Amino acid sequence: MESVFFDQSAGTFADLGLKKSTVKHLEAVGYLHPSEIQQKFIPPAVTGADCLGQSQTGTGKTAAFMLPVIERLEDPTQDPQVLVLCPTRELSEQVAEETRKLCKDDIDIVVVVGGRPLRNQMKQVEQGVDIVVGTPGRVIDLFKRKSLSFAGLKTVVLDEADRMLDIGFRPDMEYILKNCPKDRQTLLLSATLPPEVERLSSRFMRDPIRIDISVKDVTSNSVDQFFCTVDNHRKLGLLVKLLRKEQPQQAIVFCRTRRKADELYNRFKSRIKQVAALHGDLPQAKRDRVMQSFRDRKVRLLIATDIVGRGIDVGGISHIINYDIPEHSDDYVHRVGRAGRLSSDFKGRAFTFVTKDQGGELTRIEMLVNRMIPEYTFEDFDSFEPRKRRHV
């Protein structure tokens, strides 16, 4: 796999091989200077080459992969020309929303995800569409019902490929890719590149160009990271202490389980008006309302699980608090990357609560991000149960 590093920094989108009309439209909607992933990813992708990009959410990756495919769209046809696969409904909808800003009104985009009326999505696709964005399960559902055809696809995008593999979408992804045209362009974006992602790319991509935005650069430059050692039953007290001291503008508290997220929400809802929970057990309509309130800054403290947290793409989040250390080290990168986003003028702050028996998990995270994470302590808070004096 070829590695590509561009020595010269592109100052504007005009330097990336985009059409003048595209650059003019981007300027009109406020896109003036490309991010690093956009500088590196757009030039090879716009030529039609297969590209594998390592970049986490919040670095401008949606524009990095959508601008090239928009450039390569031909005259509208009945069947879609572009298919974008995402791990969650929330991320699918955000990718579509961002794409609509990037392109002109004459491009049709349809989102196909679970939790939405199937018949409406079938009707929208059957009426003709340029770009389909969706989750693998619903995409296959429409394909098997013959509402969605892959025959005209020119580009397939795998967004957050590592997460799709993590949550069990491997068979669906492989089924879709096997049924797509052999001569398609494939673009793969992933925050991390574990062996499973590498195997997927080697099997379904043609001599992909690799664009590497390393994890350590993303996390260390945009977020100040700390860990707090604490007994499990004293986490709640530590969280309250931390929130009082830090006074976050907007924060996400990540939990491993839906039950824990609900438990924390019930503890805080009587104390804080601007608090909400977000996890997979909530009805889709409720999740949508919570996400919109979070984007509108009506929710200041969001308590979320990982599977939904991947769909959170909001600028200006000041704090990330890992109430539970991530089960997988890669999830740490995704969680922490939500602070200190492109649209924010300040560095984010991330805190991870670590119990005495989780030292090994913290070490694995430090190895992944290639840095030592300092400890954060409070002089007036006892994180551990005092040892009982033994009577002789």
Using the CA coordinates, give the radius of gyration: 22 Å
Q: What pattern of helices and strands is seen along the backbone? A: EHHEHEHEHEHEHHEHEHEHEHEHEHEHEH
Q: How many domain modules?
A: 2
Q: How large a portion of the residues is in β-strands, by DSSP E?
A: 15-25%
Keywords: ATP-binding, Helicase, Hydrolase, Nucleotide-binding
InterPro entries: DEAD/DEAH_box_helicase_dom, DEAD/DEAH_RhlB, DEAD_box_RNA_helicase, Helicase_ATP-bd, Helicase_C-like, P-loop_NTPase, RNA-helicase_DEAD-box_CS, RNA_helicase_DEAD_Q_motif
GO cellular component, one term: cytosol
Domain Helicase ATP-binding: 42-211
Structure description:
The chain is α/β, with parallel strands linked by helices and 392 residues long. It folds into two domains: 2-213, P-loop containing nucleotide triphosphate hydrolases (Rossmann fold); 217-369, P-loop containing nucleotide triphosphate hydrolases (Rossmann fold). Helix content is 39%, strand content 17%. The chain has 16 helices and 14 strands. The chain has helices at 20-28, 36-45, 61-71, 89-102, 118-126, 136-144, 161-166, 170-178, 195-204, 215-222, 235-246, 258-268, 284-295, 306-309, 329-336, 359-369; strands spanning 2-4, 51-54, 82-85, 109-112, 131-134, 155-159, 185-190, 209-212, 223-229, 251-255, 275-278, 301-305, 319-322, 348-354. The strands form two sheets. It has an eight-stranded parallel beta sheet with strand order 1-8-2-7-6-3-5-4, sandwiched between helices. α3 (61-71) crosses α4 and α6 (136-144) packs across α8. The model is unreliable at 1-10 (pLDDT under 50).
